């Protein structure tokens, strides 16, 4: 991705028609559109290709299985048109390596979850975040997912992964501050409900762009 707007839209809706309408009307405000299980399971995997006609698609499947299953999932979503995918690191190096190898074969980006943005991530993920970040770097991932809700964690993870890309969820509905996350080292902010759930999604996206410029 080219860091032009520094925003990624998390399109967590379940209606195919609404998803396509939002993608068309909002793609100019975002560098990529992130879709996950809610939309793909509701609309079918073809939605990946349809949305990729408007913007790069990040498949947020948080892949976390044995190596062979990870490979099959990665192959399916990348062949469907995704240009990047998101996987968990906790299943271990071999499982994550399968995702990294598949992404490389498709000239796609792999983003590794090292810490999520909700409060529950503090229970098990945060204590392991540094190890997960190191593993992401070891397998050659393009970047990691780190929480905008805890900017100090972004700063710590940045010190581990160097110049790899950090994409940060949690701005808006979860209370994360865009300015704080970017100042801590995030490259892109992931925003969802505060945009697509607004009365005027385009106006909300424009406000977000003005806030971070």
Tell me the strand percentage band.
Answer: 15-25%
Shape: globular
What summary fits the major beta sheet? 8 strands, parallel, barrel
Radius of gyration: 16 Å
Strand order of the largest sheet: 1-2-3-4-5-6-7-8
Total E-strand runs: 8
Q: Percent range for helical residues?
A: 40-55%
Number of helices: 11
SSE run: EHEHHEHEHEHHEHEHEHH
> Gap between N and C termini, in Å?
18 Å
- The structural class is alpha/beta
List the defining traits of the structure above:
about 210 residues, alpha/beta, 8-stranded parallel beta barrel
Q: How does this model look, in words?
A:
The protein is α/β, with parallel strands linked by helices. Helices cover 46% and strands 18% of the residues. The chain contains 11 helices and 8 strands. The protein has helices at residues 16-26, 37-43, 46-52, 67-79, 93-105, 121-124, 129-138, 151-161, 178-184, 193-196, 201-212, and strands spanning 7-10, 32-36, 57-63, 84-88, 109-113, 143-145, 165-169, 188-191. Strands 1-2-3-4-5-6-7-8 form an 8-stranded parallel barrel, surrounded by 7 helices. Strand 1 (7-10), helix 1 and strand 2 form a beta-alpha-beta unit. The longest helix has 13 residues, at 67-79.
């Amino acid at each position: 991705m080219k860091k032009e707007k520094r925003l990624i839209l998390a399109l967590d809706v379940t209606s195919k028609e609404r998803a396509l309408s939002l993608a068309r009307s909002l793609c100019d405000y975002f560098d990529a559109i992130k879709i996950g299980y809610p939309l793909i399971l509701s609309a079918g995997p073809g939605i990946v290709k349809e949305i990729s006609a408007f913007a790069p698609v990040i498949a947020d499947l948080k892949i976390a299985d044995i190596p062979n299953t990870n490979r099959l999932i990665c192959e399916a979503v990348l062949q469907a048109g995704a240009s990047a995918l998101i996987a968990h690191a906790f299943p271990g190096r071999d499982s994550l390596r399968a995702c990294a190898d598949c992404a490389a074969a498709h000239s796609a980006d792999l983003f590794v979850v090292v810490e999520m943005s909700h409060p529950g991530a503090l229970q098990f993920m945060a204590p392991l975040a540094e190890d997960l970040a190191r593993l992401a770097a070891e397998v050659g991932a393009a970047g990691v997912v780190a929480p905008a809700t805890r900017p100090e964690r972004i700063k710590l993870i940045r010190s581990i992964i160097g110049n790899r890309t950090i994409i940060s969820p949690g701005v808006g509905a979860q209370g994360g501050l865009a300015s704080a996350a970017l100042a801590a080292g995030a490259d892109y902010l992931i925003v969802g409900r505060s945009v697509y759930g607004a009365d005027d999604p385009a106006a909300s996206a424009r406000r977000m762009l003005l806030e971070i410029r």
